[in-house]
Amino acid sequence: MTDPHYLRLLAREYPNADAAASEIINLNAILCLPKGTEYFFSDLHGESEAFGYLLNSASGITRDKIEWLFQKSVSLREREELANLVYAPEQVLSQKDTGDDSYCEWCEITIYRLVQVCKTVASKYTRSKVRKKMPETFAYVIDELLHADTEDTKEQYYGEIIHSITRTGMAEKFIITISRLIRQCSIDMLHIIGDIFDRGPHADLVMDELMGFHDVDIEWGNHDVSWMGAATGNLALVANVVRLGISYNNFDLLEDGYGINLRALSMFAAEVYQDDPCTIFTPHILDENTYDPVDIPLAAKMHKAIAIIQFKLEGQLIARHPEYQMEDRVLLDKIDFQNGTVTIGETTYPLTDRLFPTVSPEHPLELTPAEEELIHTLALSFSHSEKLRKHIRFLYSHGSMYKCVNSNLLYHGCILMTEDGEFDTVSIGDKTLSGKEYLDYIDTQVRRAYFAAPGSEEQRNASDFLWYLWCGPKSPLFGKSKMAAFERYFILEPETHTEARNPYYNLIEQRETCEKILREFGLDPAHSHIVNGHVPVKIRQGESPIKAGGLLFIIDGGISKAYQKQTGIGGYTLIYNSHHLALAQHKPYELAKQDFSKNAPTMQIVEIMPRRLTVGDTDNGKQVAQQIEELTELLKAYRNGEIKEK
Ligand SMILES: O=P(O)(O)OC[C@H]1O[C@](O)(COP(=O)(O)O)[C@@H](O)[C@@H]1O
Ligand SMILES: [Mn+2]
């Protein structure tokens, strides 16, 4: 029974029985439409070009539609061109000879074909939903073209519209617009399961793309919270993102993308480490910088300078938070500067680099005055970056620790577990949290770091907690026993580099574990799945992204170039449409872009739906059904006179 007060509010929008009844009819029609296509990504790691391509090609969804429509009537070469046009219209158009006699004819035929493709992809949506996706300029024309039927008179009308588009010199603009609409209709919802940032060259462009997308949610990854923490002024995280950025040669992103001024750091590093080659700090060069080509030996010095600052700041942060129980992660104070060794636990190891001009053996965690000034200058640069502010805001407004959507549970890292398959517990104050409750608690803290009064104790603690989420042993975003950054720089012995994964990663091979997790989040294991990112699936070593007989998918397949050696592929995407759930395995983008048609993704249908799913089967459908119920009550209230019609 709907609250009468609410019914009165509803009556303002639907002032009489006819209005309520016609909305009920509309909503019922929506429930019968096929469910829209959901598209899942994870671990984009700044690979904006590869992402753009995967997004625009929708893992071949559009190509399939083109095949279905034109296989018998259009040559393969032209079908390829049409698909490429939908993915990257500007690029294809720029290669056309506009002076050619047949150019106008090509435009008209192309527009005609694009309209057919658009009709097919838009057929899943109501007219009004498609209209909302249309840019104003061509909204009326596209609407007419999509809904003109093919009787003779209409055919003429149709031809006339296309003709006048080319005659008025608007063909290119129209092609770009309708291609975009096709792309937008191919994907109804986009889910990004964390780690947009770090390693690859342009997380900023990935964020721009996401912000322009009509329906997107983000499940935060450990790299994302690290940037969120840097933006909220956490100095250890400022150092961390700068260190990772330099170590992957992401100068374009830092300086040009976000306007982070690295001049002070480069001057400091050049001076302090002038005679030190800083060899072990040589950055990985996966991509060249366009705007900020950097001198590699200088970048190595900057890398070392910021790494040392980070280790000091982390030591201070750990001291501020005994509850994190991470004292064993402070290693600068375990160095024997005279002998050039470090002692971890019972074992003493020689250091690969013994030059620490800024570390005082008596107070190893203290920043020098110059380091202090430097890190504050950098932090200021982060908080002043308008672009970064917009992107972080979006991570907050569209992001969360996890999401349950259409019977799928999405999160980046893991749900902490003990060896014997129980949810691991964490003590926070006088509470003991685990599973969903712990994730909810974290979600609140992450928001507090951004929204609490700047500089308040509450805000500073929450912001330090973002650092814990980056690398703490009980961080479900990290899911490993320790972050061995210090060891990987300074110690050769590989056993010190091991970061033990949480038992979760073995346990998810069993159905039982995944069922338990799904139930914890209120989902029925018989109809639900978990989608997870974070750990690259080592296909070369026989690992599979499909766990527990298809209850869980790990879709970190190496869109990030840094991981392609391990995974052997260019990443996974998951597609959930009205017919099935499918896993697309992509070729590395560098290879794919040499010839897209020969390097199409391999699709594996992992689950076929028992019948074609409709909007009525989705979460959104449940809301629509609820609205129908409320409107039906309103209608009743109008009819029995409880509420007066207007
Ligand atoms: O190889 P890099 O870039 O130094 O990064 C290694 C670090 O990244 C991590 O793998 C975390 O990043 P991911 O979330 O991408 O796995 C740490 O466990 C590890 O210490
Ligand atoms: Mn991760």
TrEMBL record:
<keyword id="KW-0464">Manganese</keyword>
<dbReference type="InterPro" id="IPR029052">
    <property type="entry name" value="Metallo-depent_PP-like"/>
</dbReference>
<protein>
    <recommendedName>
        <fullName>Fructose-1,6-bisphosphatase class 3</fullName>
        <ecNumber>3.1.3.11</ecNumber>
    </recommendedName>
</protein>
<dbReference type="InterPro" id="IPR009164">
    <property type="entry name" value="FBPtase_class3"/>
</dbReference>
<keyword id="KW-0119">Carbohydrate metabolism</keyword>
<comment type="similarity">
    <text>Belongs to the FBPase class 3 family.</text>
</comment>
<dbReference type="Pfam" id="PF06874">
    <property type="entry name" value="FBPase_2"/>
</dbReference>
<comment type="pathway">
    <text>Carbohydrate biosynthesis; gluconeogenesis.</text>
</comment>
<keyword id="KW-0378">Hydrolase</keyword>
